[in-house]
Design goal:
The complex is a heterodimer of chains A (402) and B (251). Chain A is of the alpha+beta class. Chain A is 56% helix and 17% strand. Chain B has a single domain (17-242), classed as 3-Layer(aba) Sandwich (Rossmann fold). A 6-stranded mixed β-sheet of chain B has the order 6-7-8-3-9-10, with helices on both faces. In chain B, strands 2-1-4-5 form a 4-stranded antiparallel β-sheet, with helices on one face. At the A-B interface, helix 11, helix 12 and helix 14 of A face helix 3, strand 6 and helix 4 of B.
Chain lengths: 402, 251
């Protein structure tokens, strides 16, 4: 009987393809919008996650200026110095690597090639803190770092686009006014989600960078990587204590530096994306509600139009429940069909938008299943009233209906 | 399924009495001043295998009586016994089962499903009887053959003449092999020649299959096909005539 009911419903929908299509348009649009939003939201969340993990796990960043989240001014805040790095190295427990870090855009010249790229000053330990890998050559040695030797490690883009056909190792690269020898090439890291090419970079020992590029002894950031077993919040506390002591900041006074936990930042970002996704989905979901009302409207019209048919069915022995089921199945089929169509359109839409905004396309089975079930439920809920009306018709009057 | 079983069980024991009986049946529509006594204390017995014509002026209660006989309506007072069972005590689902298994309807306006082929129209009552597809098809084709329209199986009502539509409607009413066929002015929309074709078909079904037929008509020559004639007036049976020329096929 159920298969017959399904067949009957299908035939009825086919009989009025155009009307059926228009009826479920709201559902189609609503479901498609939800799918696009949720899919892109999931893609963005994953993107943020992978960006953060690319930066290195367990990473804490120490930057000048008060708590950024509290809007502390960073302009007047004192910068870090090499002595701060040494102090942290001495005092902190549960740390796997510490790297001072500074950067700025500057001219790089290789032969005839000339380009403004990101110049970074740091130490070899950066490879631990930020997961940087050297594919050719090597990292800085301790003595190179101490003496501020003119050596550099180049990003993959520099090698590919400025040193085509050249053996990079041992070659000379001009950074600003400094000529330095290439001792290594970094593994490509790809496009950043915000901002440009991460591989268009030249890395110098921090001392070389300070003396020969910027001409001061400031350190913009100190990057600290916790040991695998380390408790990051405890580490943050240690860092805060060491720095406050070094700077003689009295109890109750605000710090003039900030300790930022990147996984925490990632978490906040992902939560924000999640909230945004939910909010936008809810707005799109309203369209589903409107779609449901559209279905109810058409089903009511259909019941009136088919009053005589209902009378015939009752006369030849259909029970009220069977008539009701017939109309319910019809409504559910309409909206579930609209849901399927919406899901398809939504996935196609998400798949074509995702590359354009540089976000991975993340197919989520659970979202698709939920969207489908929800649209079917809309049909059942909004089809209920018309179906009950059909089932409660008086057969004699229904048969007489013109 | 169980409900069907119980409906069949309900009617299983063949009572020796009449197929249907009205005991002092009244039907009142409306209340107070607007009250209409469509039926007023009707007593009536119809045996299995009879062919009965119901006549009477407009508004005399013929259709009301047919609706009650067809379990589409219940009497306001009095008892309606179908195979000895008081229909007044049955729930709406049980009445649906009675209609499904024991009753066939033919209407003045044919009442076939539009945009649905003759064959599919015939299959509809069988679908409700949960008869599986292959057998359903065979039964429907056989019924179409009985009414001489096997070659129109794939035609929709719009593609059939009035007489043909009414023959399809009769086929639909008998495809379930009912005990009682109720026809309310089945020839009302047909010309004389077509009307007589329909009456010959009903007579044949009555004779060959022992199908009990109750038919409402305004025409004497149509009523003449029946074995017994009941005249209604103001909600009562005022005359009952046996047709000696065409004897009733009641035992
Ligand atoms: N649903 C109803 N509500 C109120 N009055 C009704 C209803 N159905 C029938 N009646 C009244 O009951 C009486 C009998 O009606 P019925 O339809 O049985 O007459 P009929 O003999 O079939 O007439 P006709 O030959 O015109 O078909 C009429 O007076 C009619 O107006
Ligand atoms: Mg009538």
């Amino acid at each position: 009987m159920l298969s017959n009911t399904l067949l009957m419903a299908l035939r009825e929908i086919q009989r009025n393809v155009l009307r059926s299509g228009l009826t479920v348009l709201g559902i189609i649009i609503g479901v498609a919008a939800v799918i696009v939003i949720v899919t892109l939201g999931a893609g963005t969340t994953r993107q943020v996650g992978s960006e953060i993990s690319k930066m290195g796990s367990n990473m804490i960043t120490l930057v000048p200026g008060g708590d950024m989240r509290m809007g502390g001014a960073s302009g007047a805040a004192p910068p870090f110095l090499a002595a701060d790095v040494e102090a942290l190295r001495r005092e902190l427990v549960g740390v796997s690597a510490i790297a001072p870090y500074a950067q700025r855009m500057d001219q790089v010249i290789v032969g005839n090639e000339n380009r403004r790229v990101n110049i970074v000053g740091t130490v070899a330990e950066i490879s631990v803190v930020r997961n940087w890998k050297v594919t050719d050559g090597r990292l800085f040695t301790l003595s190179e770092e101490r003496s501020g030797k003119a050596v550099c490690i180049i990003g993959a883009t520099i090698r590919k686009e400025m040193m085509a056909g050249m053996e990079p190792l041992g070659a000379t690269v001009r950074v600003g006014k400094l000529s330095c020898e290439v001792i290594g090439v970094l593994e490509p890291k790809g496009q950043a989600m915000f901002g440009g090419d991460q591989d268009a970079t030249v890395v110098l020992p921090i001392r070389t960078y300070q003396r020969r590029i910027v001409g001061n002894d400031r350190i913009a950031q100190i990057l600290i990587s916790g040991a695998d077993s380390a408790d990051l919040s405890d580490l943050k506390l240690q860092i805060t204590q060491v720095m406050r002591e070094r700077r003689n900041i009295a109890a109750g006074e605000r710090s003039n530096f900030s300790v930022i936990d990147m996984t925490e930042v990632a978490g906040v970002m992902q939560t924000t994306i999640g909230v945004m996704t939910t909010f936008l989905s809810a707005i799109a979901g309203v369209s589903l509600l409107v779609g449901g009302i559209g279905i109810m409207n058409i089903m009511l019209v259909s019941v009136t139009e088919r009053t005589r048919e209902i009378g015939i069915r009752l006369a030849i022995g259909a029970t009220e429940r069977e008539v009701m089921l017939q109309f319910l199945v019809e409504a559910a089929m309409l909206s579930a069909g609209g849901g399927l169509l919406g899901i398809t359109l939504g996935l196609i839409g998400a798949a074509s938008i995702a590359p354009a905004i540089n976000v991975p396309f993340v197919f989520q089975t659970s979202t698709v299943v939920q969207a489908f079930l929800f649209s079917a439920a809309v049909g059942v809920i909004f089809g209920f009233m018309p179906a009950r009306r059909a089932a409660r018709l008086n057969p004699i009057e229904a048969l007489r209906h013109e | 399924m169980s409900k069907q079983g119980s409906a069949s069980a309900l009617m299983a024991e063949q009572s020796p009495g009449p197929l249907v009986a009205f005991e002092n049946v009244s039907k009142i529509y409306g209340k107070g001043d607007a009250e209409v006594r469509a039926l007023n204390g009707v007593n009536l017995q119809i045996n299995a295998g009879e062919f009965v014509a119901v006549m009477g002026p407009s508004g005399s209660g013929k259709s009301t009586a047919m609706n009650i006989l067809g379990c589409l309506d219940k009497p306001t007072s009095g008892r309606y016994l179908f195979k000895g069972v008081d229909v007044g005590g049955l729930a709406s689902d049980q009445l649906a089962m009675l209609r499904r298994h024991f009753l066939g309807f033919v209407f003045q306006g044919f009442n076939l499903l539009a945009r649905t082929t003759a064959l599919e129209n015939l299959e509809l009552p069988l679908i409700y009887q949960r008869i599986e597809k292959a057998r359903r098809r065979a039964m429907a084709l056989e019924a179409l053959e009985t009414v001489g329209l096997a070659d129109r199986a794939d035609h929709t009502p719009a593609e059939l003449s009035g007489g043909q539509q009414q023959r399809v409607a009769i086929a639909r009413a008998i495809v379930t092999k009912p005990s009682l066929l109720l026809a309310d002015e089945p020839t009302g929309n047909l010309d004389s020649a077509r009307s007589h074709e329909i009456m010959q078909l009903l007579t044949r079904l009555n004779r060959e299959r022992g199908l009990t037929v109750v038919l409402v008509t305004h025409e004497d020559d149509i009523a003449a096909y029946a074995g017994r004639r009941l005249d209604f007036r103001d909600g009562r049976i005022v005359r009952e005539t046996r047709n000696t020329g065409k004897p009733s096929h009641a035992q």
